[in-house]
Amino acid sequence: xxxLTNEQEAEKLAKKIKRCLDSIPDKFTVVITNSTIxxxxxxxxxxxxxxxxxxxxxxxxxxxxxxxxxVRGCDSQL
Length: 78
Description:
Blueprint: H1 6-22, E1 28-32, E2 36-41, H2 42-52, E3 60-65
């Protein structure tokens, strides 16, 4: 059994994450931080973002909390 190199394992992981993100329907916006995944209706999120100018407390319809030290959120502008 061949063991994957770190690079090969990282590539597989990136592809899995991309497939997951690609499957998000356009009507939703997903906010990922280092401890939560929040799912918002896109229109409500856009309105909130225009009014508030940040994503600190978006109108969330579903969320999951997790404690994973190796996951980081990213800037909403990316």
